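User: Please fill in residues for this 230-position structure.
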């Protein structure tokens, strides 16, 4: 696969950057930071919330269909006074779920054809985030996962945001520690299945140099101090 920098040089396609991570890891903050860096360097860039893309309105995620409404609300807002107290339970990846995700892959590929070439799209969440919720233990599940891994549209740059359990708990006080700890471990192990994910630490004091370096190395963008944010 050609690098994002070569895409810019040829001017033949768009560039996709995905930002994945546990709730409270700073996906929105990092996505906005990337937009600042890209636009300061003169790039045409925009940010999209992946789960609410119009192409998915008629294909509801099997995961979100089974998720209580109050928990979905807690994921969408920082100030919802809801304590997610239930334990973290991984689900079974079934054939029906697999076929649904394949349909989403196809839908996303078709929808992407309408996107503007030479533009950088920063996606807040991506298909990567789905797989932390499944066991992938049995033979059938591993087969379904291998199929999804092979068919999933890849992004040009895939970021995985990681923070300490203490940081996540402080940012998301309305989630139980048990849930955050288990889900955080699942996200850390995500790179075992998707080695293309680039880990970015977002704990206080971690700095933004890693983002600057990624934008420079992968997109051929030379960042400057004027693009820095707090």
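Assistant: Residues filled in for all 230 positions:
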């Amino acid at each position: 696969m050609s690098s994002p920098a070569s895409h810019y040089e040829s001017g033949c396609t768009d560039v996709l950057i995905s930002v994945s991570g546990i709730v409270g890891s700073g996906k929105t903050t990092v996505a906005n930071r990337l937009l600042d860096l890209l636009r300061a360097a003169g790039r045409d860039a925009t940010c999209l919330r992946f789960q609410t893309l119009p192409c998915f309105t008629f294909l509801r995620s099997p995961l979100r269909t089974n998720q209580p409404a109050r928990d979905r609300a807690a994921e969408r807002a920082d100030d919802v006074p809801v304590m997610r107290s239930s334990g973290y339970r991984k689900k079974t990846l079934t054939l029906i779920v697999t076929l649904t995700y394949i349909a989403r892959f196809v839908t996303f590929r078709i929808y992407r054809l309408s996107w503007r070439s030479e533009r950088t799209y920063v996606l807040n969440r991506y298909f990567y985030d789905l797989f932390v919720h499944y066991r992938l233990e049995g033979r059938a599940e591993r087969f379904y996962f291998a199929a999804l891994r092979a068919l999933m549209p890849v992004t040009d740059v895939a970021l995985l945001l990681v923070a300490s359990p203490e940081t996540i708990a402080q940012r998301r006080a309305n989630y139980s520690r048990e849930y955050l700890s288990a889900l955080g471990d699942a996200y850390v192990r995500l790179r075992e299945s998707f080695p293309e994910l680039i880990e970015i630490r977002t704990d206080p004091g971690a700095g933004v140099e890693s983002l600057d370096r990624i934008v420079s190395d992968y997109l051929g963008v030379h960042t400057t101090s004027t693009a820095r944010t707090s």
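For context: The CA atoms of residues 9 and 118 lie 9 Å apart.
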